Amino acid sequence: MAVKYFQRRFWRWVRKRLPAQSPQTLDRFKLFIFPSAAGAGFLVVTLLLWLVGTNYENNLVIGLAFLLTSLFVVSILHTFGNLSGVTLRALDSVPAFVGEDAEVTLLVSAEGGRQYENILLGWPDGSTVAANLLDSRETRCKLFVPTRERGWMDPGRLLVETYYPLGLMRCWTWLDLDIRVLVYPRPIYGGKVPPAEAVADDGSLAADHGSEDFNGLKAYRPGESLRHIAWKHYARGQGLHTKDFTALVDQRLWLDWEFFDRFDKEGRLSRLCYWVLEISKTQNEYGLRLPGVEIRPGKGLEHKQQVLKALALFAPPARAARQVAA
Amino acid sequence: MKLVYQLPRNSLAWLLVAQAAAIAPHIPRLPVWLVGAWLFVVAWRVQVFRGVWAFPGAPVKALLVIVCGASLLFGYGRFFGLEPMVALLLAAFVLKLLEMHRRRDALVVIYLGFFTCSTQLLFSTTMPAAVYALLCVVLLTAALIGLNQSEGHKQPLRSVQLAAKLVLQCLPMMVLLFLVLPRLGALWSVPMQQSAASTGVSDSMSPGDITRLARSGGLAFRVAFDGAVPPPSQRYWRGLVFSRFDGRRWSQARIAGFRDGPVLATPDNPQPWQRLVEVSGSSRTYEVIMEPSHQPWLFALATPRDYSTGISLTRDFRLVYREPVGKRLRYRVTSYPDYRLEAQPLPDWRLRQELQLPDDFNPRARRQAQEWYRDAGSTEAYVERLLDYYNSDFTYTLEPPPLGRDSVDEFLWGTKRGFCEHFAGSFVFMLRAAGVPARVVVGYLGGELNPLEGYLQVRQYDAHAWAEVWLRGRGWVRVDPTGAVAPERIEADLRSALSEQESQLVSGVLALDRYRAIAWLNRLRLQWDALNYRWHRRVLGYDSTMQAGLLRQLLGEVSPLRVALLVIGVGGAILGLIALRVLLKGRKPRPSPATRQYQRFVRKLSRAGLARAPGEPPRDFARRVATRRPDLEQAVLAITDLYERISYAGQAALVPELRRSVARFTATRNLFR
């Protein structure tokens, strides 16, 4: 209880001290430094050496213990120097689907001629990347951070730390680089795309599966409908194949919120998302209809991103929300 | 399969180098098999790194540990003791390589390396050893740096350069701590080096012993006098007194043989027999820095009165330390050259001690002694008679012929060639045979003055044996029969007393003092020794007394507050200077010509409203510009291409072309076209 309270106080203090901003240059107001576990071990070694030197009355061993003490102290400056003066800037982020890792690109740069090594960047639950500024003044780092729900995600404070050069000290900070990552809904298989009855901008329904044209055979993949398996071929020992039908229907599809009325809001969005991904592999044009949102049919990368973004950010208007609830 | 952490190449390489450096000075002391095991383990670890072999499994590791531990125990017979403990440390240091799975294991190896590096200093504290230890610390630091660099670091020299820089930055701070931090003496007793061969004069003397010593150039001790340095003939450093003779060997009188109280006297525990010495006249005070001899006896001029703590006076009025001198020892002594020792008539038991001779040896010498003594009439005249005999046709030589059973007879009337122990031994024999109490004294005679620092260095080849004769009313008087044969030995040094050919035998091959004739080489030798002397006195001998003196000099009055202020003030200044160096922004490197041209090109585009985003790669930027301004596409792509070819493909010859293209390039729309 008390621990939680102090944690809250601490993070409030960090937020106040290190407000969200990009770019940020690290300086003594933003950095923390403390001996690492290895540093504590090093101090124990130093103390033992001092004991050996004192007991043997050997000035050289005592001197060696003092040399290691100085090394410990001087490494504070060097470790601090390995972060101080570094500028971090959020460049861009690549949207991801829920459950995937989103990719964020950071630019690590430094003015002046100093060299930096092994600066570790990462989110607590994401991957950690090491940045070096040896003979260049800037370097781009790609970081990955796991996603949990759709919409704009704030990956939290980025942990920037370094143990360089001796590992005896840990210098670190938590930076809020004002990063937002767009997270699309998790795609969930929503039936074979597109359902014949789903299309037709002009209102006329396409025929059911029986009227689709037989297009050939392809290898069976687990999860496909058993209805389309070419059992005759299987009986002849030629393995499982699926009869492939092509729906030669209207090329312009409307993906509609109402298709999946048996699912809840996230379920509908996930299935719509799956369809968007499937249709955008073809040359077909498609549009999106959500309560309060309508995107005219189109195609291409930008259109796809626009549709996915609409799915990611969709929040039902009050009336639609009631309908879903009912 | 478990994912195995692979130690970065750079780190492993430096770790192995640092380990080799830390182990190397121990190799002569280690059992050979341990060195073999080390090389084997290193080879194994390298094979693991290359992915050829796997790490050993638990049974193999357990076997290795048991075999190494048992071999050490059998080899040394014990674990408690400096050498077995160091060997055990080294075995752990070596075997841990095979268990280096994680970063933490590598850290343990490096920390063990620091220990190994320190144990090397327990065996040797010379200046080169200290410099070498510093080198080891640099290498270990490089390994530590390697461990904290990114994997795939390709510049191993950077690690060691940085390590050297760090260690150099630490030195001023180390000196400050060394000078100022308080010294507590030994907190508890620790095992000392044991197997080391004792050096210098030993506790018995048979013909040839001192001759062997004389061929060694090793340093025995250095002496700094508070006042003037006495002339060479006064520099008789008494070490041991031999009163027992068994026909071949001279050795010390049995402790139990003394019947007037304990044989050792200390300032806290004075003994009645100390009254037997009377001193008069001026005294000489001097400081001796003795090299480890692994023997307890110390060396002093006759006759010592005041001496440092830890030292006792023996019944035969010489000094011994409380334990064998296992490391360099510094002590101060005040001696009185004018003394009367046991001047009263000796009691019977003392006479028996100082007249003892084995019965059936050297019959001719016994006969001759009684005859000559009768002829001489007095003890003094008899001594003169003996010295005259030595002076007649004896030769002082480093290569005396071997002697048989009746060694005194054979030497006095046969070979007539001998070194100091032959003269002293036969002389004392002849005196005792004539009923005159006499004994052999062993120690060093002389010492070379270092004119740069004004101290004497006494080397093993200064080892000497002489005699003390008891004269009625005068007590023990020093008589050196060698002086009758080779007066140069007493007035100058050994070398001048020997033939030119024989003097080449003195001292080891490496001793520079064989080349005394070459002036600059001799000067270099003296300077080197003076440096060593200062090293021993100021660095190795720096103790709480010297520290108190230094602090008084610096602070006036010594108080904890003032010392703390000194540490904070000076330490802060040192750290401040390092911080300035580390943290101040280095000078911005001047961009390359190609980069300067490219920046000019980016500025031109930026004026036309096409700014380059921070960190945007040139190619991405070019494509973005091309989509917004198709009219510029060709020029932009051409310039970007040139820039990339110069920067990344190293085609520096293209720079002029880039300059021309950038100069021609214009991004503003030409309205009048």
TrEMBL record, chain B:
Nucleotidyltransferase found in the keyword field: no
Pfam family, one: Transglut_core
Transmembrane regions: 30-46, 53-73, 79-98, 105-123, 129-147, 167-188, 563-584
InterPro entries xref list: Bact_TGase-like (IPR052901), Papain-like_cys_pep_sf (IPR038765), TgpA-like_C (IPR025403), TgpA_N (IPR021878), Transglutaminase-like (IPR002931)
Keyword list, A-Z: Membrane, Transmembrane, Transmembrane helix
Transglutaminase-like domain span: 412-483
KW Transmembrane (keyword) present: yes
PANTHER family per record: PROTEIN-GLUTAMINE GAMMA-GLUTAMYLTRANSFERASE
Protein name in the entry: DUF3488 domain-containing protein
Protein species of origin: Exilibacterium tricleocarpae
